[in-house]
Amino acid sequence: MTCERMIQMRKITADFVHSKMVEEKENVAASGQETVSKKGAKKQAKAAKKAEQKAENAAANAAENAAGENAVDHAASRYGVSEMIQSKDKRSEREFLLVPELSKHVDKGLVWVRGRVHTTRAKGKQCFLVLRQQSSTVQCILAVGDVISKQMIKFAGNIPKESIIDIQAKPIGVPIKIESCTEQFVELCVEQLFVISQAKPQLPLQIEDAARPENPDDAEGLNIRVNQDTRLDNRVLDLRTPANQAIFRLEAGVCRLFRDILTDKGFTEIHTPKIISAASEGGANVFTVSYFKDSAYLAQSPQLYKQMAIAADFDKVFTVGAVFRAEDSNTHRHLTEFVGLDLEMAFKYHYHEVLHTIGNTFTAIFKGLRDNYSREIEAVGQQYKVDAFKFLEPPLILQFSEGVAMLREAGVETGDEEDLSTPNEKLLGRLVKAKYDTDFYILDKFPLAIRPFYTMPDPNNPIYSNSYDMFMRGEEILSGAQRIHDPEYLMERAKHHGIDTTKIAAYIESFRYGCPPHAGGGIGMERVVMLYLGLDNIRKTSMFPRDPKRLTP
After folding, report:
1. Separation in Å, CA 412 to CA 55, 447, 472, 482
2. Which 3-state string (H, E, C) describes 461-482?
3. Residue range 291-319: average pLDDT?
4. How far apart, in whole angstroms, are the C-alpha atoms of residue 289 and residue 310?
């Protein structure tokens, strides 16, 4: 029986079942007076007949299987394990389709598709196989007939999950919605099947388990979970889940939007050194590396080089690159290596020119994600509970002192010059959300004592500085400030922080030839994605995370 005939039979069966249900309802209404004993007798007779039929079918199948093992395989050339692809042939006659394109090719002949075996199940003369391409899935069917042999069915049913296969098949429309696949109204009738890369039979984790929705409130749900270490130890498999595919495509969207928005605003992208001669942020949280006969450091920030670019008349610059922090912090939001989205901009008279530019850039990114990545956000939401991210336009700006006052009103004791602790950050985020209905806000005028040496003090109040942080869902995602552009004042502030000025001599020297006033900030990309999606751990948004306990894979 061909798979087209099987689909026709399924439609006929569905129609028949529907008509029988209607008929049974009518019969029940008409025969309401029949006795229970008569029904019982009919039920027993039906069960006996069913058992007899089952035994006959089993015997017939056993005989057929025995014959099939010895029969000539008329489909031998249509399936098997392909030889290793070493670019020997171009096979340009094979034009491959993407799974989402299949609906456009229904009943238009044979097509080629490459994907992974998501699931496979062979029974008797049929095999049902779900083919997966990234996050898209389609049901494939093989049925014994003129094209497909019994041996081919057995081969297809034994292909290990996650193996990569090429199939040639006819896309056919189906009468019944296929709930388990993303392509719900098309099915592939397979005519050829070749294994391109075979996976190990035993996988360290099952994709179905890794993709299972995390809903602790669902008492009826399956309590099968893949823990974080198992996921990260087998990250190549874990990244194949629909949610992870969506997370990292959305993350790419954040970088693209950051670049496009700033480029449209007249910014120039630059690339800065990651091996430097002095700790860019000061302090001890820096990785030391051997540099020939001397020592060097991995950059904690591109800060100094962004400023030097401003001094070199680039006016507005941004950079996307790795940032290293030697902090022994095993928290949900810290990494020892992350992707920094940094920008720096000259201004005319007030650093708020820059602050508003950054705030509006975030607003544009949020709008871009909302409008262009709704499918990815939905895919993440199918596994993780995702609350829609709320933001105001223009963004909310509060003074640091206002934030402290809100915390004190809520019963928190905190000093005027004390940095916000993580619990206080989160509490302030909840208070802001309750009062202003926004998940994103800016806190301006931080205390000078808790900011880096190159931060410009507030000319009206020496306790504070011309610096700011930006927050998403109550967690910091950007720290920025107006930078000191006067070399003598910069030297004074560096010495105040205990920094060896001989090691930053080139940096300070760059301001001796005239430098415009400027400000900027640094953003943690993984943290932005984590908080936008409302996820609980930054390791979910770092493809191969690095923290104090993880250096592999």
Report:
1. 76, 18, 21, 29
2. CCCEECEEEEEECCEEEEEEEE
3. 94
4. 28
Alpha-carbon gap, residue 189 to 234, rounded angstroms = 33
Please check whether residue 82 is in contact with residue 196, taking contact to mean a CB–CB distance below 8 angstroms.
yes
pLDDT 10s digits, 95-142: 999 999 999 999 999 999 999 999 999 998 999 999 999 999 999 999
Please provide the DSSP assignment of 348-392 as one string. SS-THHHHHHHHHHHHHHHHHHHHH-HHHHHHHHHHS--PPP---
Q: Would you state the torsion angle of the CA atoms of residues 334, 336, 337, 342, taken in this order, to the nearest 10 degrees? A: 60
At 329 the pLDDT is 85
Q: Nearest to residue 400, comparing CAs of 449, 454, 467?
A: 467
Rounded percentage of the chain residues whose pLDDT exceeds 70 = 88
Position 311: which residue type?
A: A
Asked if 309 and 270 count as a contact pair (C-beta separation under 8 A), the reply is: yes
**Per-residue pLDDT band at 471 (split at 50, 70, 90):** very high
Tell me the pairing of strands 111-123 and 396-399: unpaired
- Cα dihedral 212, 217, 222, 224 sign: positive
Name every residue whose Cβ is closer than 8 Å to that of residue 126 and which is 6 or more positions away in sequence: 6, 141, 142, 143, 144, 153
Q: How far, rounded to the nearest angstrom, does the alpha carbon of residue 250 sit from its chain's CA centroid?
A: 6
How far, in Å, are 20, 27, 139, 142 from residue 13 at the CA level? 10, 20, 19, 19
Among 70, 81, 83, 82, CA closest to 151: 70
Helix axes 242-264, 374-383, angle to 10 degrees: 150
Between 496 and 21, the more confident residue is 496
Beta bridge partners of 81: 195
**Catalytic amino acids?**
325, 327, 333-334, 476, 479, 527
Q: Pick from 5-14, 26-35, 303-312 the range whose average pLDDT is largest.
A: 303-312
Query: What's the first-to-final CA gap in the chain, in angstroms?
Result: 48
Q: ∠ CA(251), CA(252), CA(258), 5° rounding? A: 95
Specify the long-range contacts of residues 398-404, CB closer than 8 Å, at least 24 apart. Answer: 398/432, 398/441, 398/442, 398/443, 398/444, 399/443, 399/444, 399/445, 400/443, 400/444, 400/445, 400/446, 400/447, 400/464, 401/445, 403/428, 403/443
Q: What is the pTM of this model?
A: 0.85
Q: What contacts 80, CB < 8 A, 6 or more positions away?
A: 155, 194, 195
Instruction: Give the three-state DSSP class for 400.
Output: helix
Length of the chain equals 553
Q: Which pLDDT does position 38 carry in this prediction? A: 67
Secondary element (H or E) of residue 401: helix 400-409
Q: How many helices (H) and strands (E) does the chain have?
A: 15, 17
CA dihedral 365, 367, 369, 371 (to 10 degrees): -150
On whether the CB atoms of residues 3 and 191 are closer than 8 A, the answer is no
Task: Decide: 416 and 461 in contact? Cβ < 8 Å.
Answer: no
pLDDT of amino acid 44: 78
Comparison of pLDDT for 9 and 156, the residue scoring more: 156
Distances (CA, A) of 239 to 135, 162, 204, 293: 11, 13, 13, 41
Q: Could you tell me the two tokens for 134?
A: 């990234």
